[in-house]
Amino acid sequence: MVNNPTPPQLALPGIPDTVDTATVIDEMVRRAASMGYESWWRRAESVGFCAHPIQLVGADEYGRQRVVWTRCNNRRAHICPSCSDLYARDTWQLVHAGAAGGHHDMPITVADRPQVFLTLTAPSFGPVHTTGDSAHKQRVCRDHHRTGGYQRCRHGKPLWCSTVHDDDDDQVGQPLCAECYDYVGHVLFTWHLPELWRRFTIALRRALRKNLKAVGVDPDWIRVSFLKVVELQARAIPHIHTLIRLDPHDDSQQSDWESPVGATELAAIIQHAARSVSLTVNDPCADDGVRVILFGGQIDTRPITPTDPVKKVSPEQDSSTGRSLSGRRVARYLAKYVTKSLADLGISARRLSTEAIPDLDVSEHVRAILTTISDLADRGLSGVRRWLHTLGFRGHITSKSRRYSTTMTALRQHRATWTREQNAKNTAHQHNPVTQDGDGDELVAWEFDRAGHTSLGERTLTITAALHRIQQRRTACEALQNQRRDMQGEVPDG
């Protein structure tokens, strides 16, 4: 007698593998067959098919109860694909407006000002497995010719790796020897990175003032503006991408202002400031009780040009060529990675406790980081245990100086105004008040009712619709780019 193998379980978007998909499908069918499905669908569509909408209730001046939904605005793709995609697009608008100008109340003249794209990485705390990608050419992870031969660490582990790892290989980012890896230094760098960044901004402004005084220019004539995005490397440690721009201190000089410092000179000043800044912190595991925190040796500075170069590669991939970057390319690069989270490492957005560390479905590298955080908290590093769920990082993922560009709030207000205007033109929305988002109901006192959908079936329906809409938009954008590329390639007769 041959036993038939168990049929594979159907994978549903946004549903963990531990959940019975048959139950979720039944909930989806019941919602689709219900009497209020059209009303529910219009309400879900009004918030862009948000996977975790916030429901507000209130009563108007006539005592009628009103119910509205609003977006969760979560940047993490595994929690809400719709809001995450919207957050990435808003980030693109924010970065591009500050780099190229011409929209969102940013003058077009900002594109001609000195701008530098800077990447600040963490120092090495031990050799790790890498993809070995160099100028789009795959190579082995750690070639013994480049690492000094077939050497081993003091624990007997090889310090070379002849494997060609793919980007989705689980070994990428894992240390070659976990016993040699400096986990204490890893955690302390992550924990003190916000303060190290603050000191860098101070050092940069001081270095710029010193340079301006040396050439006889009033240092108060120039203002430093920046936008910063923190990205998590494969070895589970953050590094910083930032756009730094020089502006006139007085906004009335926006049109005829010319910077006395060029982009190349600004890049040199940034390099000096980044390599000179340091932070001395307490290290309970060190013999002398202190440790000096520095940025890594890979400090990449790239000038920003108003026009796109011919070669289309990412900022990090083109770093070896020394070519400048465009504001559009940097905006696309930062928007792509701003929605990354720790979900790929097996950690959710909720706070963790020390007791939960052994039961997490994470790699041994991540588990060692969490254990080190807990140990340092026991040794007196105050407050670090609250940030287990972020691997010890306590800063903002995205931040900017006040006048670098527009704001997320302004972008959302502009979108809400456009949505109201479109709804006013659409007779279907006028006859279906359930789709209204609450704008214009100034006399209604809204109160929080609940967050999320009532069932996993409803959540699956909205996530499926959101993914379908995102794919449609990306396909349309690619088609439009191909059409523009074909039009630019056409040569007129004669």
Task: Outline the structure in words.
With 494 residues, this protein is of the alpha+beta class. It has three domains: 21-77 and 408-481, no CATH class; 101-125 and 182-400, no CATH class; 126-176, no CATH class. 34% of the residues lie in helices and 13% in strands. The chain is built from ten helices and eleven strands. It has helices spanning 21-32, 37-46, 81-100, 183-214, 263-276, 327-337, 364-378, 408-425, 427-430, 456-489, and strands spanning 54-59, 65-70, 115-120, 222-232, 238-248, 279-282, 290-293, 299-305, 325-326, 398-400, 447-451. It has a six-stranded mixed beta sheet with strand order 9-8-3-5-4-10, sandwiched between helices. Strands 2-1-11 form a three-stranded antiparallel beta sheet. Helix 1 packs across helix 10 (456-489). The longest helix is centred in the C-terminal third of the chain and has 34 residues, at 456-489. It is globular.
Condensed summary:
This protein has 494 residues and is of the alpha+beta class.
Number of strands: 11
Report on the biggest sheet. Answer: 6 strands, mixed
Total helical segments: 10
So what's the overall shape? globular
What number of domains?
3
Average of pLDDT: 84
Strand order of the largest sheet: 9-8-3-5-4-10
Order of helices and strands: HHEEHEHEEHEEEEHHEHHEH
**Which structural class do the helices and strands define?**
alpha+beta
- Content of β-strand: 5-15%
Determine Rg (CA atoms, Å): 26 Å
Q: Provide the helix percentage.
A: 25-40%
The residue ranges in which pLDDT falls below 50 over 5 or more consecutive positions are 308-322, 429-440
Distance between the termini: 79 Å
Protein name: Plasmid replication initiator protein
Region (Disordered): 305-325
InterPro entries: RepSA
Pfam families: RepSA
